[in-house]
Write a structure and sequence with these properties.
2 copies of one chain form a homodimer.
Chain A (H helix, E strand, L loop, with lengths): L53 H28 L2 H8 L13 H25 L6 H18 L1 H8 L10 H24 L18 H13 L15 H21 L10 H15 L7
Chain A binds a DNA duplex through helix 1.
DNA sequence: TCGCTAGTGTGAACACTGTTCTCGTCGATG
DNA sequence: CATCGACGAGAACAGTGTTCACACTAGCGA
């Protein structure tokens, strides 16, 4: 590598500093279509026409091709080495052309972030869906294994979303929804287990019930988990043991803690059997969330 | 931010891809002193003289000043925005001068990585040392709180060591030793607790004892933990319940999983009471490792 | 059907980056 | 005292993100 290579956003900053996060409203506007431009041409059938217009269609396709090329390059050189010029080169277009579609490099990275969240969540949901609904522990394990497998298969994309946040001060709204899907998957299994047990509490938490300081957070998480379920399978929030949502948060944290530690090299020389270890962890967190083998 | 900003290492890659890690021997040579040059001048008192030589001393000081300036800049703009030229500018020297001391930008970053590990471990050890030895749960909690506090106070340095690995293919040996100190601190408390209990096993693990696949890893971790203790406080390895080292690994993982999730924004909108949550997690992982309140 | 306009692509340019190289200078060492 | 190696400066190179003025052309309203 002879010449220099350019570095990311001038002032890349991560969350902390101010602990309570009342932050600015996202420097980078949205994800893909930069200028609103050809969103929905007024012609054709009226207001928001059914046909989307030739130009808008071409635009959307090119946005996709740029993102695909960028993802290819990301897989090779990582986020820090992702070069706008290299992407345009691989597409045979001028470097400046990409700025018709993404306002800057960070926006391109943000699009990849969104895609990565979606890809990971799709993989996890597909794996979970393939397990019989009654096999609660199997579904729980399937989510864990799918996340790890996806991370190993897409290490740079994983690092992009679960490593240090590189682009902007906060992720735009688009990413928070797909980012939550894996956690909601775990929460769904836990609530199913709770319902299958006929409302039995989690078994034998060694610690006290729920610290008073965490009651509000537990209710928040439970609300998020329940609101993502169809209404007919939604138990009343007051009935659910508040240890369940907290256990889900901890399981979610530990899942990504394990995968990140493995991928980022912190287990080197410490743990060799990473798959077996994650299974072990998942079995334990499942028990804490009330998900047992014979569900 | 008008002009472009350069991006990090050409081929920044993280661990995975090959799952079993039999990897190349570190592209970046060592940490601070680039050319062996003025390591220990033959003059003075003979072999490795007591006086280190004026020139070597000046060199060591300048290396330190460069690292300090780089750390200052890191705290402002993050690792991706760290610019060698900006560092030299803040020191009033030519951009090329820094290459007398660091072979490239990655080596400078590696030095900051080592420093960050050391700073974090120092903070954790100091906090743990301030707690009475008999208060085992207090020591365990102190380590957790100190890690979180240090991370909140040095977010970019934390991201540098526990976010996506940016510089090279693997961290040089220098970083693995300080990186292990926090984990060894937890292990020390757990072994103390085990000894204080007179060799009682951990209480009520819901899962089976230890999966066969993890026996070897558990023994490895136990060996690392024991070999870091003074010989007179070192119990025989066969006597310790193998669930203890595994519980320590999981506690260590969950600690950094929580802190990373908080710092990297994944708890936004989910958990507000992060300190209370970490205390809760720590109390639970302590119990799993056999560390109880009345030690 | 024809003009106009807005979206598109280009190439040059700017400011910046990491890194290398050459060339004086100067200090410690034989 | 002479010499050699470390040092610092400055120019240079290749590459970067981003902007801008300019052609072009597809698709719209008239």
């Amino acid at each position: 590598m002879a010449g220099g290579v350019a570095a990311g956003a001038g002032a890349a900053s991560c969350e902390a500093g101010r602990v309570t996060d009342a932050d600015a409203p996202a420097d980078v506007p949205a994800v893909a279509p930069a200028r609103a431009g050809a969103g929905a041409p007024p012609g054709r059938t009226g207001a928001t026409g059914v046909a989307e217009g030739v130009r808008a269609r071409a635009r959307r396709e090119l946005v996709g091709r740029i993102a695909d090329a960028a993802r290819d390059q990301l897989a090779e050189v990582g986020a820090a080495g992702l070069s706008v010029r290299a992407v345009t080169r691989s597409l045979g277009m001028a470097p400046s052309a990409v700025y018709r579609y993404f306002p800057n490099r960070d926006a391109l990275l943000t699009a990849l972030i969104t895609d990565a969240y979606v890809g990971l969540a799709d993989a996890a949901e597909a794996a979970e869906r393939a397990v019989p609904r009654a096999d609660l522990l199997g579904r729980w394990l399937a989510v864990h294994r799918a996340v790890r497998a996806w991370a190993l298969a897409h290490p740079h994309e994983y690092a992009l979303i679960y490593g240090s946040p590189v682009p902007g001060y906060r992720a735009p709204e688009d990413t928070t929804v797909p980012a939550a899907r894996v956690a909601l998957l775990l929460a769904g299994v836990a609530v199913d287990a709770w319902a299958a047990d006929g409302g039995a509490a989690v078994p034998d938490g060694p610690g006290a019930p729920v610290p008073a300081a965490l009651l509000a957070d537990a209710r928040t998480v439970l609300g998020l988990a329940l609101s993502s379920r169809p209404a007919d399978t939604r138990p009343p929030a007051e009935a659910v043991d508040l240890r369940v949502p907290l256990a889900v948060v901890d399981a979610w944290t530990e899942l990504f803690g394990c995968v990140s530690f493995e991928l980022f090299g912190h287990y080197r020389g410490v743990l060799a059997e990473r798959a077996a270890h994650l299974d072990d962890v998942a079995t334990r967190t499942a028990a804490a969330a009330g998900v047992r083998a014979r569900g």
